Amino acid sequence: MTVRTRTSTTPTGTAEMVVEHDGDGEGTILLVDGVATRPRPAARTLVAMPAYNEEAYIAKTIIGAKKYADAVLVVDDGSEDETVPIAEALGAIVVRHETNRGYGGALQTIFAAARKMGAVELVIIDADGQHSPGEIPRLLAELRQGNDVVIGSRCIKGSAAEIADAQSGFGAYGRKAIEAIRISGEAMSAGSGILAQISDCHLKVAGTPIGVWCEGTSSEEPRYREKRIAVVVPAYNEEALIGETLDGIPDYVARVYAVDDGSSDRTGAIIDTYAQHDPRIVPIHHNPNRGVGAAITSGYRRAVEDGMDIAAVMAGDNQMDPVYLPSLLDPIVDGRADYTKGNRLISEAFRKGMSRWRSFGNSLLTFLTKVASGYWQMMDPQNGYTAVSTTTLRTLPLTEVYQGYGYCNNLLVWLNICGMRVQDVAIPARYGRERSKIRYSTYIPRVSKLLLGNFFFRLRTKYIQMGFHPLAFFYFAGALLAPLGLIGGLVTLWEKFVMGESVLFVHGTLSFLMFMMGMQFLFFAMLFDMQANVQQNAGY
Questions:
Q1: Residue 418 half-sphere exposure, CB side, CA atoms within 13 Å?
Q2: Helix (H) or strand (E) holding 520
Q3: What are the strands of the beta sheet with 339-343, ordered from one edge?
């Protein structure tokens, strides 16, 4: 059997690539101008799709797949429509079967070609539009966690993430699996035969839930695990990066609220242009600039009005990697959290690219926000990569939340007062061409003052007005006695060494006891605060 690909132009002319193999897919030879060779394209990550008469859907699938792959391979199984011309026009490598060989035959060609192309990662996706290419990063992320095979599971309800959907047809395969899987026969099912070989070869396989356009849903709208996802994109003077940010929004997102916060450059015009070509994008314009908190709030309010289930935030500077968006969504979908946020400070590797000054500022604000918000196990409060259920948004007084750069810190205080569960998600920092608009020399003092007021507001609202708890008294007593003891100690030293009075033992002892008693009250107050929030945040 001989299968021919499209012709490809080289600097010396036009060469035809031919794939020849025997019935079991072994002994495959790639010929260029009649000379046996290995394919030249850099294809560390190869996305491949079998196709038969898919002219209506294949363009969207190829365009989406190209964002995440070094090469896209289309195995056309004898189509009689315009599938091949469309794929070739979009730059895909096209392998044509002269006759229809069935799905198993297409898979046979895919794995044989992946081996000859030296692919390290292979993603197989159906070309008929039922799979979202935006899920490819999710499959690859799971594959890179040490798995040999990752099978996407469709229409998963609840927390059945470990189900491997054998008939999904959407999966990722590592180098070991690419070499091990040897397909024979033309009627092989999408996954059951492959899973049998995986078991025989003792490969490590994982199943992961994927967002698809599931049969039986009320509308043909992108969904993630049956949830309508919105992404809020606040942007201020981001004309250089807003396009890249919008291009990276995964296909399973139903709405993108792109908020131009009074930009003086072309940010707003770029957003409007994207909205003309992508119906998911909803432009929101502020004039004048109202602050990042106000921009996010505008997006949140539209998400609630439009009936979204979860709203995520991805800044317009392309700093938030969409690969990690599912990691923020899953705890909310599974009912384990109401609000999730990224955490770049959990390890030194995740802080790569963050300056020492920026790291110090984040660490200091982390401690202050822990005290002010009551979420003692939370880190990296300045991380704007977040997700929240719209049920939670309906509970929060969004108009009362601080509208400037201290928005994320103040929001955590309100979440604690309203009894919401917050969960950190480890996400590495990603820095590129963006320029931080935060000046930490002025930002830290301003936010510290804000957090002090937030702390007293939380104590008064949650532990006095909404229900009395003794920790409020302990905080008050500790805040009074500890400074008095410290001042008393300094006065005692002044009396001893400046005035020459012999009162060091008596006054010093009293000052020390007062200081220690104050610190004990503060520590007890913190302990009670931690316990109260562990109970509230069960499952953190």
A1: 20
A2: helix 504-536
A3: 281-286, 255-261, 229-235, 310-313, 386-389, 339-343, 422-426
Question: Positive or negative, the Cα torsion across 101, 102, 104, 107?
Answer: positive
Provide the whole-model pTM.
0.56
Task: Write a three-state SS string for 476-492.
Answer: HHHHHHHHHHHHHHHHH
Backbone conformation region of residue 323, classed left if phi is above 0, alpha if psi is from -120 to 50, else beta = alpha
d(CA 424, CA 30): 49
472-501, pLDDT tens digit by residue? 778 888 888 888 888 888 888 887 777 777
For the chain, give the longest Cα–Cα distance: 107
Beta strands in 112-254 (DSSP E): 121-124, 149-153, 171-174, 205-209, 229-235
SS3 sequence, 13-42? EEEEEEEECCCCCCCCEEEECCEEECCCCC
Reduced to 3 states (helix: H, G, I; strand: E, B; else coil), residue 397 is: coil
- Contacts for 231 with CB less than 8 Å, ≥ 6 apart: 249, 253, 255, 256, 257, 311, 312, 313, 314, 325
